[in-house]
Amino acid sequence: MPSRSSPPEIGEDTSLKHHRHINSYHLLPPLLAGTITITIILLTLLTIFIYRKLSRNRTAPSDSPSHRQCHRFSYSLIRRATSSFSASNRLGHGGFGSVYKGSLPSLPQQLAIKVMKSADSLHGEREFHNELSLSRALVSPHIVPLLGFSSDSGKRRFVLVYELMENGSVQDALLDKKCEELMSWSRRYRVLCDVAKGLEYLHHFCNPPVIHGDIKPSNILLDGEFKAKIGDFGLARLKTEVLIEGLEEDDILKKKDENGSILEETESGLTGFEEGASSTVADRSPEASPGLSPEKGVLYLKGCLIKRVAREEIGGGTKIMEVGLNP
């Protein structure tokens, strides 16, 4: 007689299911904690990525037509362009860092490569981004053109690449070397007019206006034809209706430049020279300058720069503050 299979033991099956349920219950908290941890890590990484992308976009050159084409170079390429920052290629140095002469196959011009000092990394980086964001937006024959830049925040390397001005600064050419080409008053006068036109562009054709804030002979550069261009926008600011962006009202007082000249600041934040030069070039009508001689076409400039440029022998008893437009 065939044997019957014994029915499954109900108690044993129930015990097994209960055991599995307990194991699943113990695994749930670590699985949940792991999922939450991974989610937090992914969100953190995503936030960092977006922040860095936005930061790069704020400082990277814009493709807008109003901006000059500005190249981004690798630091290794900059190093080769200056022969590893050779002392023989160094054009000058100061509190901002050093400037080197260089050349790149992709650019036809000789270059002035400004390597920002990284000892005070926070200040140096802030000044670099300030100068980059302003200079790349300026397009004028009276402003030194910015051609490119190189930046590496991790290694604190910040470089600005400008077109080389062959005849250096007014400080070097006129006041230090006594360059023969600048000994005539007519040539010096043209230099002053170039500076005034540059300031007119910054104050009246930029929106919002740009306040250079550091006009002095060492920041006026001369190209191969001794045409003057304004350079070094590390201290420049955008002018708002009330204050200069980034400065408190109490800070708009006085600055003393490295040559010992006092640059008075007006309530608008303009230096005395900047205010006088730009306003008179913008409007040379008799109504704008009632105390000047309109028939002589007088350009009225005030401040330390014109005094320094005109203090040499100019002959003929010419007055510093009143010179004909066709000397």
Topology:
Elements: H1 10-59, E1 71-72, H2 75-81, E2 90-94, E3 97-102, E4 111-116, H3 121-135, E5 146-152, E6 157-163, H4 170-176, H5 185-205, E7 210-211, E8 220-222, E9 228-230, E10 237-238, E11 254-256, E12 262-264, H6 272-282, H7 304-310
Parallel strand pairs: 1-5
Antiparallel strand pairs: 2-3, 3-4, 4-6, 5-6, 7-10, 8-9, 11-12
Which regions contain 5 or more consecutive residues with pLDDT less than 50? 56-66, 241-303, 313-327
- Shape descriptor: elongated
Q: If strands are numbered along the chain, what order do they take across the biggest sheet?
A: 1-5-6-4-3-2
Structural class: alpha+beta
- From N to C, what is the helix and strand string? HEHEEEHEEHHEEEEEEHH
Strand content range:
5-15%
**Assembly state here?**
single chain
Q: Please tally the β strands and state the result.
A: 12
Main beta sheet: strand number and arrangement? 6 strands, mixed
